[in-house]
Write a structure and sequence with these properties.
This protein has about 170 residues and is an alpha/beta fold. Helices cover about 45% and strands about 10% of the residues. The protein is globular.
């Protein structure tokens, strides 16, 4: 495996339910990179502490995330305003892939941390999420992965991405 400093740092963005976590997991497996669900990470750090009186535990909060995208969006924004490392910097301290960033301010503040930004698109199957929970667009990405034609097609695109990343290192 590549040393920690030689491994690329990758940001995967896109709308909810478009396959970002799936793409991140496949990419991590194929490239020997580390991946953590940023939704799970954000739940524990930023969201559950704000709403712990509403949920039995962090797992229940996490499982209800799709019903409260705007709340999650604002909780992560508030978390990134506090002193200390941003959510992105914390994720990258232990992992190579951050999946699911949605705020413009966070993106602009941390873009330099990433070697490549990937947008996952499944817009022919799933609608986009509202702008109040995702401020980013395909124009923010270096590469767009088409996730409209099934898992095999997505996996083939990720294999090409892994080859391109290997060629850069």
């Amino acid at each position: 495996m590549k040393s920690r400093s030689d491994r690329p740092k990758i940001l995967i963005i896109g709308h909810g339910r478009h396959g970002k976590d799936t793409a991140g997991a496949i990419l991590a497996r194929m490239a020997g990179l580390s991946f953590v669900s940023s939704s799970q990470f954000a739940c524990e750090k930023a969201v559950f502490p704000l709403v712990s009186d509403l949920y039995e535990n962090a797992a229940a909060c996490y499982n209800d995330r799709c019903a409260h995208r705007a709340l999650w969006h604002h909780a992560i924004a508030a978390y990134n305003l506090r002193p200390g490392l941003s959510l992105a910097a914390q994720i990258l301290a232990g992992h190579d892939i951050y999946v699911g960033m949605r705020r413009r301010a966070e993106f602009d503040a941390t873009r330099a941390l990433f070697d490549v930004v990937v947008w996952v698109d499944r817009s022919q199957v799933e609608p986009p999420e509202p702008a109040d929970s995702n401020e980013l667009s395909p124009a923010d990405a270096d590469l767009i992965l088409d996730n409209n034609a099934g898992l095999g097609f997505l996996t083939a695109q990720i294999a090409r991405l892994v080859s391109a990343l290997d060629a850069r290192v």
